[in-house]
Amino acid sequence: MTYTTVYNIANDSIDWQFPLIGLALILVGAVMKWGFGKPGWNSYPIIVIGVFTMLASGAVPWWDYRRVTQAVARGEAKQVEGPIHDWRMARARGKRRSTDATFYSHYERFSVGDVDFDVNWGALEAGFANRGSTEEKPAVRLANGMPARIWYLPIDGPGKPPRITRIDLGAESWADAVQQDDAGIAFRLAQGHIADEAKLLSDDRKVAIAFLIQTFEQNSGHRLVVVTTPSLGGTEIARFGAEIADRRGMKDNGILLLVAPNERQARIAVGRDLAARLPDAAAQAILDGAVLPRFRRGDVPGGIEAGVERIIAKVAGPEKP
């Protein structure tokens, strides 16, 4: 069983965007009050709003985050392991007092072992909040039967759901991890410009390749990703690459260089919008001419970097009439 950490509160941070807005309001109010000093200008409401914004969006979450992370550091987090069960989406309706408007809070509810979890999608609090781009695409997808190890803190008192501080999700193989259409996970191979899960690249080589990719993306607007995987899990490399591209949202405008050293396979997957610039024949020519010969000589990192360079040269070069 392969477990992958998909959430860890230690990697979280407080979003300072709204506290900075509050600080800006305070400064504007101060300038209006003491800088210009024009009669009739009432800057106190602006200052009060700024102070409230800083407290509500900065000070309180920071205090809460410190409280939870310090409890984790003291070893107070508990662990439960087993398949997820009783997973369901829930929606709670409420009303805003100021406008009497109706709003909805969305929750994911599920259990592991005999512990029940309740995840608020929009919670402004420390602990796991499964925010995604949409409700259909949360940051971490959960489903019944998925093997899980969850660390949690019952820190908010009786009757309150425990805070999730870490989530490890399991899959029988890397192929299973990628192919879970309904319960897919943002595994590391679906994150970042370089996902070197086969541990083929040194840190210096990663920096060099990442610089090439970032420069290419800034200049062209196209996405380029390098993925190495320790196993294809018995899946054809074309399908494996397609699943990764789909999970990354780059089936249309993206290029994936996928390397599976244990199966001695490599593939360049090209999005539909780039097929004219990098057709299948050209992608295979890059593999045959720049990548695979270096692999055969034992220079796998050099082959990956050469492949990236050739892909960039082909796609970023002048378009043929």
TrEMBL record:
Claim: Kinase is one of the keywords in the record: no
Lineage: Bacteria, Pseudomonadati, Pseudomonadota, Alphaproteobacteria, Sphingomonadales
Record-linked InterPro entries: TPM_dom
Keyword Zinc: no
Name recorded for this polypeptide: TPM domain-containing protein
Membrane spanning stretches: 16-36, 43-63
TPM domain location: 195-313
UniProt keyword list: Membrane, Transmembrane, Transmembrane helix
Domain of life: Bacteria
